[in-house]
Design a protein that fits this description.
There is one protein chain. The protein is mainly α and 85 residues long. Helices cover 51% and strands 0% of the residues. It has four helices and no strands. Helix 1 (9-15) packs antiparallel against helix 2 (22-35), helix 2 (22-35) packs antiparallel against helix 3 (40-47) and helix 2 (22-35) crosses helix 4. The longest helix is centred in the middle third of the chain and has 14 residues, at 22-35. The chain is globular and about 45 Å long. The model has no long low-confidence stretch (mean pLDDT 84).
Length: 85
């Protein structure tokens, strides 16, 4: 998979160790694995995801860098459940 070099790989690996944002850490891990030359299928197997989301995260990183990996705002009614702190 082709990955644009928006950030140094060491920086991405450091960001991927963030414990407070597990989903972001997983997305960064996907990008790092792609940068290391792994295929979408290999990355999907290593992360327990399917191939299509892996391709989508790499595509979003290529388009916008790390900012593209954050969740986009969602439309619809906000949750009524209390947020955990």
């Amino acid at each position: 998979m082709h990955v644009h070099s928006h950030d140094p790989i060491k920086h991405l690996q450091r960001l991927g160790r963030l414990k407070s944002h597990r989903s972001m850490a997983m997305r960064l891990r996907i990008v790092v694995l792609a940068w290391q030359g792994k295929t979408a299928l290999q990355i999907a197997t290593a992360t327990g995801m399917s191939r299509r989301p892996v391709q989508e995260w790499v595509r979003r990183y290529n388009a916008k860098g790390v900012d593209g990996l954050w969740d986009r705002p969602r439309s619809g009614q906000p949750t009524k459940l209390p947020r955990q702190k």
